[in-house]
Amino acid sequence: MEAESRPGPGDVLSAQEYLRHMVVRTPALRSMALDERAGCRLVAKAECLQLTGSFKVRGALNRARTLPAEARGRGLLTVSAGNAALGLAFAGHVLDAKVTVVMPENAVSAKVDAVRALGGTVVQEGVVDAAGAFRRAAQLQDQHGYTFVHPFDDPYVVAGAATATLELLEQEPALDRLVVPCSGGGLLAGAILATETAGRTIELVGVQPDLVPTIVRSLEAGEPTEVEHPPTIADGLTAPRPGRLNFDMIRAANVKIVTVSEAAIRTAVRELVLALKVVPEPSAAVGLAAIMDRRIGAIDGVTALMLSGGNISPAVLADCVTAAG
Predict the structure, then answer these.
(1) How far is CA 74 from CA 77, 96, 97, 290, in A?
(2) Cα–Cα distance between 153 and 298 in angstroms, integer?
(3) Are 135 and 12 in contact (CB under 8 A)?
(4) pLDDT, tens digit, for every residue of 183-192?
């Protein structure tokens, strides 16, 4: 596939076959207490329990394995607030490729340390936001000839991400709706692709922080649009703009996108920890935040939450868990 080409069901099935013995088949969790708090029947796909603590490893592995040996030999490069960096560092470790990642200076220290533990080289100096990270990566690519692996706007990355939803559809045959965190759009585009692959028709909803409504603004503008924004607790949802491939897929599928407040995200993290006994990062909790804050209407059927990752700093976790519910 070319970088801008749309992946198809065959690409998802190929990724699923490759990843079958490479990643964890994460559980779909339920809680009666959480159902009562949310006012609907819920199931949570716990990608926070995935290798590297995020669904991102799926796309990174799928992309890296398709690269020629010569491209891997030049070294791999990506941009990330943390989870895509961890995914590619893991892929590099497995496939014997050196990995360099550009991360913002304010990236969660636990994520930075984990990338280094996997053998990745982290570049942070002078990088203050995601847009600056992409600019720095372009400079490094020109200087060193690294092979750039886009963290979300790549058909192989999207096909890999789609395997999380494909698993969920196998685990939950009666699913009616799936709520997906979104920023660059790779996980949501993957969900669209997975439903096509499985021949299933379910409602898909994307959720972003109120502070970083890039996909909402892009849909209004009719093209991927950058939005300046203040810091958000959902640090994994701060892509400067949605990917072109993902944006086109989301727009064509007419997916509803909603946004949620910082306070609602904190409360949702707390509820997920207490009810499901897992540790989601704030970016993973935006789906529950949207439901509990009534940004998404109630339905009679089963709603799934995609808990996209679990890489959260102890300080943020303590702040969320002790917040008033």
Answers:
(1) 10, 11, 8, 43
(2) 32
(3) no
(4) 999 999 999 9
pTM for the full model? 0.94
The rounded distance, in Å, linking the Cα atoms of 214 and 184 is 8
Q: Is 3's pLDDT higher than 80?
A: no
Instruction: Give the Cα separation of 55 and 87 in Å (integer).
Output: 8
Contacts of 202 (CB under 8 A, 6+ apart): 169, 175, 176, 177, 178, 195
- List 256's β-bridge partners, or say none: 205
- Maximal CA-CA distance, the chain: 56
SS3 178: strand
Count of residues for the chain?
325
Per residue in 79-135, pLDDT tens?
988 899 999 999 999 999 999 999 988 888 888 999 999 999 999 989 988 788 899
